[in-house]
Amino acid sequence: MVWNAIIIGPADTPFEDGTYRLLINFDEQYPNKPPSVKFISEIFHPNVYASGDLCLDILQNRWSPTFDVSSILTSIQSLLNDPNISSPANVEAANLYKDHTAQYVKRVRETVEKSWNDEMDDDDDDDDDDDDE
């Protein structure tokens, strides 16, 4: 089962006002095994691979069947503002975050603006889907 999700960038962070789309893929072993989560929207973050795959401990070695989708999304939103740079998926983002904050913020803000366009493009594509709700 695959779910679509949207995370809004947290206020007072470089990600503020961003609307980031994700896919959450649950296999037959869920909830005993975590779902896979992937950003569909472009995002520049130390813990997100170029493919959109996410490096987050609760989706790997710290998974618990008590975690629900809400707690997963909340953890991802929290990670946006508080990346784990000791284990980066995107080394360039981690280095900029650590050593060149202004450049990091600039790159993040570029993806925030792109996320708005992604959302508008998606709205155009999904006009027929609204009838299904």
UniProtKB/TrEMBL annotation:
Q: Where is the composition biased (Acidic residues)?
A: 118-133
Any idea which residues are catalytic in this one? 55 (glycyl thioester intermediate)
> Its annotated pathway?
Protein modification
**Signal peptide limits:** none
Checking SMART domains in the record gives: UBCc (SM00212)
Where does the record place the UBC core domain? 1-117
Residues of the region (Disordered) are 112-133
Name the UniProt key words of this record, in alphabetical order.
Answer: ATP-binding, Nucleotide-binding, Transferase, Ubl conjugation pathway
Q: Which InterPro entries match?
A: Ub_conjugating_enzyme (IPR050113), UBC (IPR000608), UBQ-conjugating_AS (IPR023313), UBQ-conjugating_enzyme/RWD (IPR016135)
- A GO MF term: transferase activity
Gene3D superfamilies reported in the protein's UniProt record = Ubiquitin Conjugating Enzyme (3.10.110.10)
Instruction: Name the family the entry cites.
Output: Belongs to the ubiquitin-conjugating enzyme family.
Its name, as the record gives it, is K10573 ubiquitin-conjugating enzyme E2 A
